[in-house]
């Protein structure tokens, strides 16, 4: 017993027990801190420009999300882009607990990539509320817009004009447009038909009106209805096959777009196993519609589009998609039909690149001030909207039908056009704060010191210390 008492009262025991107690307390505190951090994460961005902080717009949207959101990011493993993507997704998850993400290597899991129609590395698929959005360039603006499109409840309406032999959105045959309707409904659009003969104006809820391949001419009242709609800021798509203009030739000319009685021939399509009457779009101009889009599209039996030289004020015409330089617009369609052969005639045919998709923007007339009888200015009067009207014309209808919609980039390109016109390509625009570079301005004295200290004085000091040590050791010997 006395030995045990001596042990408990010994200096070694007291020191050891004290150390053990401190270790236990420190471990308990450490575990407590870790639990707090895990359950209540806290981040701070110390950069002056808040480079690693989401904008207030994005933070508000993320905090408002109440539904589960799943993000699938298709990146190769151990790449710099994947690390950057993970940093951004971690930041989104910090503000939105309902958001989950996973990385999938499309090379290791091609079946998943095929299921989500992933064609390029860096594609991100955002799913929620039974819908999905796909983005090909991951940044804050694109990801936030994709989330907004998922959580918005109000559907935009796309109208397809009927009554002139157009391709039907309810037709499941090879020439029908049922696939277009299905994909638009997946994108959260409401798709309806529109008979222009039985309406005096385009419905107010119309986001985009589409005329796809009329075989019979539209009547003058119908064309005037379209004109009023476009001039007041409406969005219109016109798709015309060769030999059919739907009575819209002069209408399109008024907006700077010309159509010719020709058919585009492209021998490059033979390389892809197609017909020479199926030109390949290989050139896209710089535009929001074609941003980050570089996939070939095929336009079977299409006609050329040209830019009208003289247009009325407020009309801005842009080329969107063109063939290769090896294609041409064949005007001798009679010989082509009878003998199934064609050759380029420089005197009559148009040498490629040939434009197959063109866009015209209509700027509303400026508001005018009306004077009364006394010469005083009254209120500004103008019935037109401040929005720009936008008209996109395709020289083909078949490229988006049930047969060709899934071919290469045809469907994606067509949906890009509709999304752009419906103002769905970006619901919000996010401007990241720019990095502020503060120049360090030195006086002449400071500049000399910067030169002398590291390049002269420090090396000289080292040399002198070496000499001093050398002399001391020499004396000791």
Radius of gyration: 34 Å
Strand fraction equals 15-25%
CATH class term of the largest domain: Alpha Beta
- Structural class, please? alpha/beta
Q: Provide the number of structural domains.
A: 3
Instruction: Write out the CATH superfamily name of the largest domain.
Output: Class I glutamine amidotransferase (GATase) domain
In the sheet with the most strands, the strands line up as 6-5-7-8-20-17-14-11-12
Tally of DSSP helical segments: 12
Jot down its keywords:
elongated, 12 helices, 477 residues, 33% helix, 21% strand, Glutaredoxin, 9-stranded mixed sheet, alpha/beta, 3 domains, Rossmann fold, 4-stranded mixed sheet
Protein model, in words:
This protein has 477 residues and is an alpha/beta fold. 28% of the residues are buried. The protein has twelve helices and 20 strands. It folds into three domains: 2-39; 56-147, Glutaredoxin, CATH 3.40.30; 157-364 and 385-421, Rossmann fold (3-Layer(aba) Sandwich). The protein is elongated. The protein has a nine-stranded mixed sheet.
List the helices and strands and how they pair.
Layout: H1 2-8, H2 11-39, H3 56-64, E1 69-74, H4 80-95, E2 99-104, H5 110-115, E3 123-128, E4 131-135, H6 140-151, E5 156-161, H7 178-186, E6 189-194, E7 206-212, H8 220-231, E8 235-239, H9 249-254, E9 257-259, E10 263-265, E11 280-284, E12 297-298, E13 305-307, E14 315-323, E15 328-330, H10 333-339, E16 350-351, E17 355-362, E18 368-371, E19 377-381, E20 389-394, H11 410-421, H12 444-476
Parallel strand pairs: 1-2, 5-6, 5-7, 7-8, 8-20
Antiparallel strand pairs: 1-3, 3-4, 9-13, 10-15, 11-12, 11-14, 14-17, 15-16, 17-20, 18-19
């Amino acid at each position: 017993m006395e030995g045990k008492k001596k042990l408990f009262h010994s200096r070694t025991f007291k020191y050891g027990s004290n150390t053990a107690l401190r270790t236990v307390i420190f471990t308990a505190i450490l575990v407590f801190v870790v639990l707090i951090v895990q359950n209540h994460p806290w981040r701070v961005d110390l950069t002056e420009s808040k480079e690693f902080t989401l904008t207030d717009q994005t933070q508000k949207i993320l905090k408002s999300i109440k539904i589960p959101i799943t993000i699938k990011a298709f990146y190769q493993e151990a790449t710099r882009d994947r690390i950057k993507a993970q940093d951004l997704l971690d930041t989104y998850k910090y503000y939105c607990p309902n958001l989950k993400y996973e990385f999938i290597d499309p090379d290791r899991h091609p079946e998943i990539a095929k299921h989500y129609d992933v064609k390029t590395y860096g594609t991100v698929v955002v799913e929620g509320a039974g819908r999905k959005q796909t983005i090909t360039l991951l940044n804050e603006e694109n990801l936030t817009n994709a989330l907004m499109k998922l959580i918005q409840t109000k559907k935009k309406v796309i109208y397809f004009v009927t009554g002139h032999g157009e391709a039907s959105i309810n037709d499941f045959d090879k020439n029908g447009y049922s696939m277009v309707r299905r994909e638009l409904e997946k994108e959260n659009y409401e798709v309806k038909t529109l008979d222009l003969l039985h309406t005096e104006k385009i419905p107010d809820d119309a986001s985009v009106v589409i005329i796809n391949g009329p075989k019979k001419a539209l009547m003058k009242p119908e064309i005037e209805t379209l004109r009023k709609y476009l001039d007041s800021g409406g969005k219109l798509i016109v798709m015309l096959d060769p030999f059919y203009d739907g009575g819209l030739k002069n209408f399109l000319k008024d907006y700077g777009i010309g159509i010719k009685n020709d058919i585009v021939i492209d021998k490059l399509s033979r390389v892809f196993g197609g017909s020479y009457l199926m030109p390949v779009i290989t050139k896209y101009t710089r535009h929001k519609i074609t941003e980050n889009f570089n996939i070939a599209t095929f336009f079977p039996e299409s006609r050329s589009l040209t830019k009208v030289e003289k247009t009325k004020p407020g009309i801005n015409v842009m080329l969107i998609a063109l063939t290769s330089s090896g294609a041409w617009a064949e005007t001798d369609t009679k010989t082509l039909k009878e003998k199934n052969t064609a050759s380029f005639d420089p005197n009559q045919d148009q040498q490629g690149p040939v434009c197959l998709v063109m866009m015209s923007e209509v700027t509303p007339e400026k508001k005018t001030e009306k004077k009364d009888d006394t010469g005083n200015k009254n209120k500004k009067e103008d019935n037109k909207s401040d929005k720009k009207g936008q008209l996109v014309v395709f020289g083909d209808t078949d490229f988006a039908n049930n047969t060709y919609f899934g071919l290469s980039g045809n469907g994606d390109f067509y949906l890009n056009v509709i999304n752009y016109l419906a103002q769905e390509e970006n619901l919000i625009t996010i401007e990241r704060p720019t990095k502020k570079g503060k120049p360090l301005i030195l006086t002449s004295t400071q500049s000399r010191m910067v030169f002398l200290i590291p390049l002269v004085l420090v090396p000289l000091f080292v040399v002198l210390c070496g000499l001093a040590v050398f002399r001391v050791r020499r004396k000791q010997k």
